[in-house]
Design goal:
This protein is α+β, with helices and mostly antiparallel strands. The protein has two domains: 95 residues, OB fold (Dihydrolipoamide Acetyltransferase, E2P) (Beta Barrel); 182 residues, Hypothetical protein af1432 (Orthogonal Bundle). 41% of the residues lie in helices and 18% in strands.
């Protein structure tokens, strides 16, 4: 039986096929019986799932990022699609095509990389150009940079998402520099390109997307700053004031202490980068919410965790 992807499931459909486990919780019903809340995923999305006839033994037989063979029926619950699972067992990764389970950017990766190289080639500052050229010429770095997601769930949570997000922020930065010529164009362009590179160390993305130990302990901003500081040390005569401003862009781009920035944006370039990064992240999250919403009768999405509100779908 051909696979039915999550984006194609509708209430009443029955499936017997593998899924990737994104999350699992063992809960207790009023009568004391166990049930499982699951988040199952494939490359097209995530679906909430219930397994009512659960046991602790079954719950402990698999983990997040495992593949499971699922027998289930799709239904609508409070306007949202969910699966009611009647049978489940863990299977080996060798039994599936892993590419069926990890969402991937729809953008042309080669074209995105070419755009980065074009932007780096146009830099006039020799130190920034040398730094970014060294990154783009590092095969192992680029392999991970091209594959990493930009988020584990909120925005650009797909293979290649980090590259897609980076180029989008770069394009916005170039337009802002045209509108505000007093900005340091080379610095802002460099900051746009490297602002999130710490995510290649902060995330695990071989099977599913979640934080690595380094990501959980340090966060991607300090990890990215450390990567740039190490790279700059290999470039003879890299000016310390320039390095400090570039590191400031990385460390401050979340904009607020409560959002993970250890320092607040204190330069024009840092303020610009913060808002450009946030703009692309928010609009990408909005687009994802539209794609994930399957209820064609309502003008509104279900509650969005990213926006903490329902979103209006109807276009004028």
């Amino acid at each position: 039986m051909p696979r039915k992807f999550i984006e194609d499931l509708r209430p009443g459909d029955s499936v017997q096929q593998p899924f990737l486990v994104r999350d699992k919780q063992l809960r207790t019903q009023r009568d004391g019986a166990f049930y499982m809340d699951l988040e199952l995923m494939d490359r097209t999305g995530v679906v909430a799932s219930k397994f009512w006839s659960a046991s602790r033994e079954l719950f402990e037989s698999f983990a997040p990022d495992d593949f499971v063979l699922v027998k289930a029926r799709a239904e609508s619950y409070r306007g949202r699609l969910q699966l009611v699972v009647t049978d489940l067992r863990r299977i080996e990764p060798s039994e599936v095509d892993v590419e069926d389970f990890l969402p991937r950017t729809t953008k042309d990766v080669a074209a995105l990389v070419a755009r980065l190289r074009e932007a780096v080639g146009a830099l006039r500052n020799p130190h920034l150009k040398a730094l970014l050229s060294a990154l783009l010429d590092d095969g192992e770095f680029m392999r991970r940079f091209q594959r990493a997601p930009a988020g584990v769930s909120m925005h650009h949570a797909c293979l290649g998402g980090l590259l897609e997000h980076t180029v989008a922020v770069l394009e916005l930065a170039l337009k802002v520099c045209d509108a505000y010529p007093n900005l340091n164009r080379d610095l802002l362009v460099a900051g746009a390109i490297v602002h999130d590179i710490g995510k290649i160390e902060a995330y695990q993305f071989e099977r599913g997307f979640r934080y690595s130990d380094a990501g959980g302990l340090l966060g991607h901003l300090p990890l990215g700053a450390a990567m740039i500081e190490q790279r700059a040390a290999a470039i003879q005569g890299f000016p310390r004031p320039l390095l400090h401003q570039l590191l400031h862009l990385i460390l401050s781009h979340h904009g607020e202490y409560e959002f993970g920035s250890p320092v607040l944006p204190a330069t024009a370039e840092a303020i610009a980068l913060h808002y450009l990064d946030n703009l692309d992240a928010k609009l990408a999250a909005f687009e994802a919410a539209m794609l994930e919403d399957w209820d064609e009768e309502s003008n509104w999405t279900e509650w969005s965790r990213a926006f903490e509100r329902r979103l209006f779908k109807k276009k004028v």
